[in-house]
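2024-03-11 09:14:02 DEBUG pipeline.ingest accepted 1 chain
2024-03-11 09:14:02 DEBUG pipeline.ingest length=144
2024-03-11 09:14:03 DEBUG pipeline.predict start
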Amino acid sequence: MLQCLEHLNLTHDYYAPKIAVALAAPAPARSPDIYAPSFWGRIYMHFAFSPRASFPTTEAITPGDTFGCAVLAGYLDRQTQLLTALRRAEGVDLRRTWVPIAPAVRFNLGDCLKILVYHDALHLGQALRVLAATPRRSWSAGRP
C-alpha cells in the first residue's frame, strides 16, 4: 500500500512545480467551468486510464523499496497542495493555460489537474484492493 502512495507522491512531485508555474501566469477564464482536454492530454489519458492499455512507469516516479510513516504524511501533504492548486484554478481558463511536460509536449492546466485526481483514484483503488486481500490480524499484545 505504501508503494502506491509513494508512487503518487513522486507523481505529484513531478506535476506540482509545473502546475505552480502555470498558475503564476494563468489565462483568465472566458466563461466559467469549461474544460476540454488538449491533444496530448487526450492521448495520455486514453492510454493511462484505459484498463486495456497500460505502459510502464518511468524511473522518476517508480517507488523504491524502503517505506515508513513519512510516505503517508507526504501523501497527505501533497493532497493539501493539490487542493490549494484546485482552489487557485478557479477563474482560470483551464484550456488556455498551458503546462509544458516534455519537449514539444504540453498539456493544458485542466489536463494536469484531471490526471492527478484520476491517477490518485486509480492507485488508491489499487491500495484498497491490496488491503482487502491482506489477512486480518490482531495487533494486540499476546494474540496471534
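2024-03-11 09:14:41 DEBUG pipeline.report Residues 109-133 form the longest helix (25 residues).
2024-03-11 09:14:41 DEBUG pipeline.predict end
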